[in-house]
Amino acid sequence: MSSADAPRWKRLEPDERREQILECATRLFGERPYAEVSTTDIAREAGVARGLLNHYFGQKRDLYLKVVKRMLLMPGLEEKVSATGTLRQRVERSVEWYLDTVAAHGKTYVAVTGAGSIADPEVERIIAEADDVAAAKTLEFLGLKVEVGSDARHRAMMRSYGGLVKSTIREWIRGGTLSREDAHLLLSEALITIVRDVFPHLHQQPGPDRGAAKAGARRGKDAQ
């Protein structure tokens, strides 16, 4: 190993070292497809021995799952964004914070949220769980404390809004077809409309016929 390839050692506390490795992995998974990133690449980028990376995170897949969780859950909304003010003020502040957070690792966010990014049931499970957590957190932040299980339709609508969020960010970060201002406008106005105009009508609408939905799903599988 040449001096240029040797790890760039710097003494850090364990938590700081873990964060450094995770930060480097986050960046590399955004720059290259999953299959083209090795633990050796990540260790070199972080300036650590590969054995230390494995000690902290296990194999590459384990580290990738950590990156997926970080990108999707993005903790900090409650601590960094005030939940006071009008609905519009709260929504616009939360969307602004979210876009700021995504912008730090936009390519990685697009990579891990893109359809078929990596065919792995565990990744799919993490994404589904993160979508549900994000839906519940958004409802609570907006002052609509819908407990898990009390009204699945509120959370389902927020998960649907989450799909719009992901698509909008892809158009902004990867496609360049939307500006950041466009993304902020679309996501803010859509969320305000859902909360102000759609949610009040939910109690007037009949819930889904789950029996019919399951039967339709079975028919669809039988036809395949």
From TrEMBL:
Keywords: DNA-binding, Repressor, Transcription, Transcription regulation. Residues 202-224 are annotated as: Disordered. Pfam families: TetR_C_46, TetR_N. Gene3D superfamilies: Tetracycline Repressor, domain 2. The keyword Flavoprotein does not apply. Signal peptide: none annotated. Residues 15-75 form the HTH tetR-type domain. One of its GO terms (molecular function) is transcription cis-regulatory region binding. Residues 38-57 bind DNA. The keyword Transcription regulation applies. Residues 206-215 have a biased composition (Low complexity). This is TetR family transcriptional regulator. It comes from Myxococcus xanthus.
